[in-house]
Structure formats: structure tokens, C-alpha cells
Automatic annotation (TrEMBL):
<feature type="domain" description="FAD-binding FR-type">
    <location>
        <begin position="43"/>
        <end position="170"/>
    </location>
</feature>
<dbReference type="InterPro" id="IPR039261">
    <property type="entry name" value="FNR_nucleotide-bd"/>
</dbReference>
<dbReference type="Pfam" id="PF04954">
    <property type="entry name" value="SIP"/>
</dbReference>
<dbReference type="InterPro" id="IPR013113">
    <property type="entry name" value="SIP_FAD-bd"/>
</dbReference>
<protein>
    <submittedName>
        <fullName>Siderophore-interacting protein</fullName>
    </submittedName>
</protein>
<dbReference type="InterPro" id="IPR007037">
    <property type="entry name" value="SIP_rossman_dom"/>
</dbReference>
<dbReference type="GO" id="GO:0016491">
    <property type="term" value="F:oxidoreductase activity"/>
</dbReference>
<feature type="region of interest" description="Disordered">
    <location>
        <begin position="1"/>
        <end position="36"/>
    </location>
</feature>
<feature type="compositionally biased region" description="Basic and acidic residues">
    <location>
        <begin position="15"/>
        <end position="36"/>
    </location>
</feature>
<dbReference type="InterPro" id="IPR039374">
    <property type="entry name" value="SIP_fam"/>
</dbReference>
<dbReference type="Pfam" id="PF08021">
    <property type="entry name" value="FAD_binding_9"/>
</dbReference>
<dbReference type="InterPro" id="IPR017927">
    <property type="entry name" value="FAD-bd_FR_type"/>
</dbReference>
<dbReference type="InterPro" id="IPR017938">
    <property type="entry name" value="Riboflavin_synthase-like_b-brl"/>
</dbReference>
Length: 290
């Protein structure tokens, strides 16, 4: 998740990431076991923490995406075990007042009201030994977080909350399909690095501009990447996925990006494959929550 995604604090769903009654202890082994032997999508909650990190480095991945490396002692104890895990960046109010969430019982956070300005981003990389966390930002006009990522001085501090837990899909499927745009590149890239060496997958990646295909992805012998560029035209993402020949065995679809572009795949995937859909953003809508 690399675009502006305002995330109000929704109603509590029993068993969901905001349920204070679920067991959040020691999630790493639980996710690893589900990857090894699970048979379907599972929600595995983490203890949700808030921490203050320092901006250590800024790296341009391509002309439309910038990476910030955050770090420091505040990263100790950080949990991330699934490729599309996300954190919230919490920004000060317009008058400069910072109103971060505070720890609550059950490994939860209590958020102030009204909610502070926050944005959600995918964890691209976490290095516990180096105390480093990488987040990638799609740069676009008018985006609060993307503007901050481009201009924030190195050494400045930022409040980070989460991740709240994993939507874990196992490594036991025979084949994987990815229908993604540029905002899902961090999750895709991390999954390619962490999945089994003999994985079979097809990736349909659609970007707004050709330069966005310069994002580095690990090359795997069993993975085919189909690259599309909108260049101002209509999306071909869903149509291209639907046109792929069926593979034998059990398949899993990971669809993430612009909400309207991936929506046609919801009906298509029913009775065809297991799936996880995440609408990271929607054209013309600020602060989408999918």
C-alpha cells in the first residue's frame, strides 16, 4: 500500500484486528505455521504498538516512487510476518499538536477523538538487527503523506502505529495470481522474496506510466510477469487476468490496487479460486477505506 489512504478507526469486528479479546501473543510462529500447512486465508492478529521512529534515508525507486527508511531503538519488538502487512503514519494537527494513540489492554491502542491525520502504508522491508523499516510512497500531487515523504528532512521523527495483524494466505496453493497496480508493488515484491523457491505464479501489473515498471522485482523461474501501462486509457487489468488460461490444482488470487479496477474480479473469482481483495485507493475519492 503506497498511496494516500486515510484510515478512520472503524467499528470493532469480533475476531478482527480491533477485537481486544483475541490472542495477539507471539504471532510469528503462527503465521509461519499457516504459511507451511494452512489451506485458506486466515487473520492472525499482532500486538498493536505505537512507536516513534527517525527518518534515516530517502531513496528514489523510480520517478513516481520514493522509499523512506525509518529506524532507531523504537523498532525493537516490531512484528511483521506477511507480505502485505501495513502500518499507520500519524501526523500532527495543522497547529503542530501531535495526538498519537496510546497503548490499551489486550495488545490494542486507544485513539484520540477526533482521529488524528494518519495514512496507511505497506511494510516493504524490516531488518530487526539493523533497526530499519522501509516504506514506499507513490508520489502524486496533493497527497499529504507523499508530499511529506519527498520533503521531510533526514533525522525528523514520525509516529508509527501497527501493524495490526496478518491476512495470511498459505504457501500451499498450486498456483498464484496477482492483479496489482503500482500501489501494491511493495507487497508483491516482498511476497516474491519470501515465497518458496518452486512457487508458480502469474503477475498482471498495471501502472499509469511506463517508468513505474522500473520497480525492482525478484526474478523467479516459476513466475511470469505481464506488464501493462494505462497511459491515460482505461484499465486492462481485470480483462487481462480473466483471459489467462486456467491452471491445474488450487489457485489463489491476490488483487490489490484501485478499487474499481479490481472489482470485476470479485465475481470472476467466485467458485474459481480463493482470493484476497484490497482496494488501496479509488479515483476521485480521498480517504478511501475498503
Amino acid at each position: 500500500m503506497t498511496t494516500e489512504h486515510s484510515h478512520p478507526h472503524p467499528r470493532v469486528r469480533r475476531g478482527g484486528p480491533d477485537d481486544p479479546t483475541v490472542d495477539r501473543s507471539d504471532p510469528g510462529p503462527k503465521v509461519a505455521e499457516h504459511h507451511r500447512a494452512g489451506t485458506a486465508l486466515a487473520r492472525i492478529p499482532y500486538p498493536i504498538e505505537v512507536r516513534t521512529l527517525e527518518v534515516l534515508a530517502r531513496t528514489w525507486i523510480n520517478p513516481r516512487m520514493v522509499r523512506l527508511t525509518l529506524g532507531g531503538p523504537g523498532l525493537d519488538g516490531f512484528h511483521t510476518h506477511q507480505a502485505d502487512d501495513h502500518v499507520k503514519l500519524v501526523f500532527p494537527d495543522p497547529d503542530g499538536t501531535l495526538r498519537p494513540p496510546v497503548p490499551a489492554p489486550g495488545g490494542m491502542l486507544t485513539w484520540p477523538r477526533p482521529s488524528p491525520l494518519s495514512r496507511v502504508y505497506t511494510v516493504r522491508r524490516y531488518d530487526a538487527a539493523a533497526r530499519e523499516l522501509d516504506l514506499d510512497f507513490v508520489v502524486h500531487e496533493g497527497g499529504h503523506a507523499s508530499g511529506w515523504a519527498v520533503s521531510v528532512p533526514l533525522g525528523e521523527r514520525i509516529t508509527v502505529a501497527g501493524p495490526p495483524g496478518a491476512k495470511s494466505f498459505p504457501h500451499t496453493y498450486d498456483h498464484y495470481l496477482f492483479a496489482v497496480d503500482a500501489t501494491a508493488l511493495p507487497a508483491l515484491a516482498r511476497w516474491l522474496e519470501e515465497s518458496p523457491q518452486d512457487v508458480s505464479a502469474q503477475v498482471v501489473l498495471e501502472t499509469d506510466e511506463e517508468c513505474e515498471h522500473a520497480y525492482p522485482l525478484a526474478e523467479r523461474p516459476g513466475v511470469e510477469v505481464i506488464r501493462l501501462t494505462r497511459a491515460g486509457g482505461p484499465s486492462r487489468l481485470a480483462g487481462t487476468v480473466r483471459g489467462l488460461p486456467a491452471r491445474p490444482g488450487r489457485s489463489f488470487l491476490f488483487a490489490a490496487g484501485e478499487s474499481g479496477d479490481i472489482k470485476p474480479l470479485r465475481a470472476w473469482s467466485q467458485d474459481r479460486c480463493d482470493a484476497l481483495f484490497t482496494g488501496y485507493w479509488k479515483r476521485g475519492v480521498a480517504g478511501l477505506e475498503d
